[in-house]
Amino acid sequence: KISRSVQIVVKMIVIRLNRQLQKPHSFGTLSDVHTPNIVPVDLNSILHSNALILSSWFRLLNDYDKANKYNLIAENLVIGIQEVMWRADKGCWCDWDLINNKHRESFYMSNIVPLWTGSHKIPNDSVAYSVLKYLRDQNVINSNFSVNYNGMPASMYKSSEQWDFPNGWPPLQAFLIQGLYNTQHKLARQVAADLAKAWINSNHKSFSNGGIMYEKYNVTVVGGSGGGGEYAPQTGFGWTNGVALELLNQWDDFVADSSSGPPPKNSSTRRRRESYAKELNKKISL
């Protein structure tokens, strides 16, 4: 069953992460990276989502042959993701190691990307509960499901590389926050709201203090820059601005769905949010 499904799941070269080290559960060095031998959760989930988008576009163009072609690709991918990568015992999806013929079980934020792309056929309540339990069991959120950090770390390894703890990357925040929110599960939306607030607060701190949006953040320090790896921390920054604006655009929904009611129109939270969005838009346009 595994070997048949692995053929369905597409292998492509992706960003260098500790996930691609040949020796499981070891830090290794860049020379130990063996990306072609790892079937990644995140890449295949994004391919599934893209195939669905292409199918819908071709359908709008009345090109039903291509619409059906990409719909079939999407269906095969989601079957492969479910059969090869889903771990019901853990409540997440795991990369598949072709050399060692087993899952890579360490915690990485990529393990929840199918929640964001919808690359699964698990009922919303069930998958929301499973993922929340997984995050709690990995100690990335607290036992009462409250937020443990100022954003979600890429991993829990302290390797001094930029793709590991304590670095939090903006796209990974969006994957988790929006993925949890889209399940429509009450507790998942509460956690999504808390994560969104923590991340935006850290963004706002760095922007207020120095007019800087970092490429990545240190999730243990509010407004702290990420670090490690082979180059100096970058500022700017495209995906940080994009994720911040996405969360700010959805922020009212987060607050309203995770509390007893919507915030007052003159609340300090709303004023700060609107002011920050205005400043950020001005910064981007420069």
From TrEMBL:
It catalyses: alpha,alpha-trehalose + H2O = alpha-D-glucose + beta-D-glucose. Belongs to the glycosyl hydrolase 37 family. The lineage of its organism: Eukaryota, Metazoa, Ecdysozoa, Arthropoda, Hexapoda. It is an enzyme of class 3 (hydrolase). GO terms for biological process: trehalose catabolic process. PROSITE patterns: TREHALASE_2. This is Trehalase. It comes from the Eukaryota. Keywords: Glycosidase, Hydrolase.
